[in-house]
């Protein structure tokens, strides 16, 4: 059934289909990629041999260049024609960019891990503070004995322990230990 408009004519329905491609999907054959990059197809083959570009391959072995490949070809063209670099220089620039990318990713991972560790340290410090507040020293008979070697801002206590044959105070002084 054909849609009919109000005036009796045939009404056409227009539909638009939009396909989004990733930048690294090979879609251009060598002739199209060479034209887009304003290069000769043989230049693309030479760049592939040198490892400057790695096009995808179809099941039958045809080179398929992606949007990212074409952008890379344009950068190579810019570096060689406009900046006067030779291909060895271009290779070195790409190597350094890859190293920079890898190191930046590593720094991001390390910063993330440092943040996680800082949060864990803070959590453990809070736990230590809460446990310290909950601990109440106990001495037989109910007396709490302050320890003299701590600063007055902190209250630390020593718990005397009785040992067979001698008291806790005489045991610590004869053993040469300080509590």
Would you kindly provide a written description of the structure presented here, covering whatever features stand out?
The protein is mainly alpha-helical. A hairpin with a 5-residue loop joins strand 1 and strand 2. It has helices at about 30-35, 40-50, 65-80, 85-135, 170-175, and strands at about 55, 65, 145, 155-160. Helix 1 packs across helix 3. The longest helix is centred in the middle third of the chain and has 48 residues, at about 85-135. The radius of gyration is 38 Å and the shape is elongated.
- Helix content, binned percent: 40-55%
Helix/strand class: mainly alpha
What global shape is seen? elongated
Write down the secondary-structure element order.
HHEEHHEEH
Secondary structure blueprint with pairings:
Elements: H1 30-37, H2 41-50, E1 56-57, E2 63-64, H3 67-82, H4 87-134, E3 145-146, E4 157-158, H5 168-175
Antiparallel strand pairs: 1-2, 3-4
Helix pairs in contact: 1-3
Keywords:
single chain; 179 residues; mainly alpha; two-stranded antiparallel ribbon; 5 helices; 4% strand; elongated; disordered C terminus
Give a short summary of the structure:
Helix content is 50%, strand content 4%.
